[in-house]
Task: inverse folding
């Protein structure tokens, strides 16, 4: 049987029983039953029981199990049972947490899952790529990632980067024709392969293979092995945790030795040393970071920022420069045409009439050299159709005249049509043009049908222009005339003027002299200074071109300018102010004109009197070193190409800054990768840009980056608070044991006490602290330096001090117990106090500042719940006779219980007071 590339496009369509209308939804649904989903079967998530068993692989848990066995052998079956129960409960908690974190990360992945433009039931719809089935017709354009393997049925200048599959670094030029001979993967030029991406052009394919049957699916097993990377914070906590564990194990070893020397039985001494190790080693640190980060990313997703790489959340907190695109990110990307410049005259769009010949030519060009579509575009213009035909016949020997007269007739007769339109599909610049023409009642569809497009050179932000080639006469009218071709070019004024040598004037085409050129440039400058985006239009008559090349875009005749307004987003100004207050430098990087960019940047506060704007061309004359020196002075980069973006990011980075960079085009991918936080636009961005980014904005809005930074900073702070909580609490336990040991007092805790606290009542407040409500205060501080370790000297000092306070109240409670009764009562008091003091300590860790008499004290419902649950658990253990025996505690009288609570509570005002003194000192 022949391979798909050996068949013609029609044969392939027939093979899959597909049509130019695409599949129907019912057909697609039926096919899915047999073909399955279009996805690479990733390693399935582990079953719950496996996750549960994995919790027992932990080094500490293994030691605890050994301890339980030893307890049992020593005859202390109660202790053995309690240890096992506590370990099991801890494992259940761990399993739930891991699964929860996994779920939230997966739902995040689904949010940023790739989409495809598919023809279903005759209309183009955006569907998740996993819903594709063989036979589906998919539309591809520059920047798309190919969603499945397919056979090309239509294409224009389609070039695809297949390097991941074929290793070939040059993009492959695609064709439609069948290839008769056997061809290797890289030579199947009429096929597209899943995972490769469109570098330019556009095309239509019929899906031939999906999921694991695609070429990339066949090698998918290689891709499964990429494991999730740990975040820098997790890595640094892992290494800190390891060092701390070793130190604690050595300490516990020494304590074990001392206990044995002091006459303690080896078994008991061992049990105690193990329990202390468990109490002191903050084994939950890293997993708590994962949980908090995954919850945080959920919140950010709801606020339009989808985190693709968990590391980015931490990075967000240290961002010190945000390089942002202008159009769509800082501005609304809702353009409206404001002015026309034709024949040396400028006029407001609302005053322009289609009776002016030169204006009509401009309409003509803006309709044809346009890929957008607007609603109600296909208006029914039967009368002009006829007039158009007759005009064509009458004027076939004078193309310029024909063009203008035709349009004139169209415009006049169509003037009665009252259709209005607003919504559009495509580039907003082009939508704005069509909307204007629609308002002028220009019969857009008819013009497009009459002058079919033969070829095109799509818009690309590097060339800053686009060209389309049209047949000038419909074939049916050419029986007695030669078919002509018209090349229409639109783009940035400066770029087009360099290729223009004539200008359309009222009485025909005249050479473009310096005077006229200066006049156009001056007008461009005036428009740009008002923050308007200006497009120049030009054309050229050509003949016998079958394929457009860049060489054709010269010797153009200038038609006119169209200036449009893209207002800044209302929230941009405030976001910029917040950025500056937060020590973050906002920088605008745009492909637009320097004056337009500067006008907008000034309006939103990015361009200040002490900073300046610079053009991409100027960057070309600078060495990297010079640029590095200049970057702090430049707030606006205009007319830049994607390579400039990389240089700007690098320049800031070499100055020690952490840079976020936005991007949407296929060429932006390298800059997004180079930036510390690459930010892609979810709405207008290409799949390639999204793939390269760390974060995707679903609303393409600059202010979302700023609120993501706020969330990032808050999350980081919350994680720090959770770490502070765990470390200082553990420190309290160690200090108590150490003091008792040094002063020759009885052992303050039974092993089960420490296990109870460490494994049951401790992790929930830590997680709750991670979920502490976010504040705006974080944006009043400067960004954290990325290199700074979280465990700074001052952080460790603070934790040590808080641990000391917890240790002191526990010892006081222990001593009171000793005074009032025996060692068991003392141990009961110490256990109760330590457990409760740590629960109260949760409130201390909410903030750097005191919260005791503020409403902040109670605004974290999770923390309140964790406190309530923990307090209920410990009180039950202290109160219920059955549990008392299990946990080796003595029944407490009410005053004794009150005393335990009081000592524990005391730690709260003491630490709050220390925080107050510290914050006073910092003011
Ligand atoms: P940003 O980089 O902030 O998104 P931008 O959208 O203005 O800015 P580009 O899209 O790269 O940047 O556009 C650069 C220039 O190309 C514009 O100033 C305009 O003159 C021209 N241009 C923009 N869109 C088109 C288009 N669809 N067809 C032809 N020329 C265009």
Result:
């Amino acid at each position: 049987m022949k391979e798909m590339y050996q068949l013609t496009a029609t044969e392939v369509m027939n093979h899959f029983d597909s049509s130019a209308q695409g599949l129907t939804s019912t057909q697609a649904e039926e096919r899915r039953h047999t073909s399955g989903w279009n996805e690479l079967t990733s390693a399935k998530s582990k079953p719950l029981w496996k996750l549960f068993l994995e919790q027992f692989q932990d080094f500490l848990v293994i030691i605890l199990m050994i301890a339980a066995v030893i307890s049992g052998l020593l005859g202390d079956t109660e202790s053995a049972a309690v240890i096992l129960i506590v370990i099991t409960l801890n494992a259940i908690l761990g399993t739930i947490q891991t699964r929860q974190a996994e779920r939230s990360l997966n739902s995040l992945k689904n949010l940023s899952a790739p989409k495809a433009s598919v023809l279903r039931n005759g209309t183009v719809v955006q569907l998740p790529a996993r819903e594709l089935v063989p036979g589906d017709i998919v539309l591809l354009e520059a920047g798309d990632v190919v969603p499945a393997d397919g056979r090309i049925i239509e294409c224009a200048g389609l070039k695809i980067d297949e390097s991941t599959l074929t290793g070939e670094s040059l993009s492959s030029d695609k064709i439609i024709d069948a290839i008769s001979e056997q061809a290797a993967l890289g030579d199947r030029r009429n096929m597209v392969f899943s995972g490769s991406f469109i570098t330019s052009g556009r095309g239509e394919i019929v899906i031939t293979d999906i999921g694991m049957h695609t070429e990339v699916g066949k090698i998918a097993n290689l891709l499964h092995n990429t494991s999730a990377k740990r975040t820098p914070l997790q890595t640094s906590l892992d290494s800190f945790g390891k060092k701390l564990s070793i130190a604690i194990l050595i300490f516990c070893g020494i304590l074990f030795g001392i206990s044995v020397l002091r006459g303690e039985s080896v078994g008991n001494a061992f049990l105690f040393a193990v329990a202390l190790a468990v109490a002191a080693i903050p084994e939950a640190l890293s997993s708590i970071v994962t949980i908090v980060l995954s919850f945080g990313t959920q919140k950010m997703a709801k606020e339009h920022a989808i985190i693709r790489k968990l590391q980015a959340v931490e990075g967000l907190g240290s961002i010190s420069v945000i390089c942002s695109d202008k159009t769509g990110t800082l501005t609304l990307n809702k353009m409206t045409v404001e002015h026309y410049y034709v024949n040396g005259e400028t006029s407001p769009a609302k005053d322009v009439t289609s009776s002016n010949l030169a204006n009509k030519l401009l309409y003509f060009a803006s309709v044809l050299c346009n890929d957008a579509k607007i609603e109600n575009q296909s208006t029914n213009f039967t009368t002009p159709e006829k007039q158009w035909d007759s005009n064509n016949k009458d004027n076939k020997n004078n193309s310029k005249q024909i063009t203008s007269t035709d349009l004139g007739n169209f415009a006049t007769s169509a003037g009665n049509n009252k259709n209005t339109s607003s919504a559009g599909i495509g580039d907003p610049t082009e939508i704005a043009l069509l909307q204007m023409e629609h308002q002028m009642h220009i019969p857009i569809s008819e013009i497009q049908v009459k002058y079919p497009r033969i070829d095109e050179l799509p818009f690309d932000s590097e060339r800053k222009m686009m060209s389309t080639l049209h047949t000038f006469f419909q074939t049916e009218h050419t029986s007695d005339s030669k078919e002509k071709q018209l090349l229409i070019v639109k783009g940035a004024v400066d770029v087009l003027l360099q290729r223009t040598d004539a200008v359309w004037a009222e009485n025909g085409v005249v050479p473009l002299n310096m005077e006229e050129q200066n006049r156009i440039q001056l007008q461009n400058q005036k428009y740009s200074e008002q923050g308007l985006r200006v497009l120049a239009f030009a054309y050229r008559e050509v003949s016998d071109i079958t394929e457009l090349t860049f060489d054709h875009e010269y010797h153009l005749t200038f038609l006119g300018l169209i200036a449009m307004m893209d207002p800044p987003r209302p929230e941009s100004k405030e976001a910029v102010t917040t950025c500056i207050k937060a020590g973050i430098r906002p920088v605008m990087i745009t492909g637009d004109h320097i004056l337009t960019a500067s006008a907008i940047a000034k309006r939103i506060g990015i361009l200040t009197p002490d900073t300046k704007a610079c053009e991409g061309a100027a960057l070309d004359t600078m060495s990297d070193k010079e640029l590095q020196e200049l970057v702090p002075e430049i707030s606006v980069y205009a007319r830049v190409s994607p390579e400039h973006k990389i240089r700007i990011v690098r320049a800031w980075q070499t100055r020690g800054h952490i840079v976020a960079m936005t991007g949407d085009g296929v060429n932006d991918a390298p800059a997004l990768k180079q930036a510390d936080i690459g930010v892609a636009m979810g709405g207008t961005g290409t799949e390639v840009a999204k793939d390269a980014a760390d974060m995707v904005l679903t609303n393409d809005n600059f202010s979302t980056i700023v609120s993501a930074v706020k969330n990032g900073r808050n999350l980081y702070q919350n994680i720090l608070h959770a770490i502070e909580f765990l470390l200082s609490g553990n420190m309290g336990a160690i200090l108590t044991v150490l003091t008792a040991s040094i002063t020759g007092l009885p052992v303050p805790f039974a092993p089960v006490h420490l296990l109870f606290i460490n494994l049951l009542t401790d992790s929930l407040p830590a997680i709750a602290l991670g979920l502490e409500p976010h504040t705006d205060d974080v944006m009043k501080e400067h960004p954290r330096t990325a290199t700074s370790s979280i465990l700074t000297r001052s952080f460790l000092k603070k934790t040590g001090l808080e641990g000391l306070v917890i240790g002191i109240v526990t010892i006081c409670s222990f001593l009171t117990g000793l005074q009032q009764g025996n060692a068991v009562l003392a141990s009961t008091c110490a256990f109760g106090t330590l457990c409760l003091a740590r629960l109260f300590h949760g409130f201390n860790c909410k903030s750097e500042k005191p919260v005791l008499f503020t409403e902040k004290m109670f605004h974290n419902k999770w923390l309140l719940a964790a406190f309530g649950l923990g307090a209920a658990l410990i009180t039950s253990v202290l109160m219920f006779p059955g549990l008392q025996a299990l946990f080796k505690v003595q029944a407490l009288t009410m005053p004794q219980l009150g005393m335990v609570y009081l000592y524990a509570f005391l730690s709260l005002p003491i630490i709050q007071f220390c925080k107050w003194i510290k914050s006073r000192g910092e003011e």
About this structure: The longest strand covers residues 149-161.
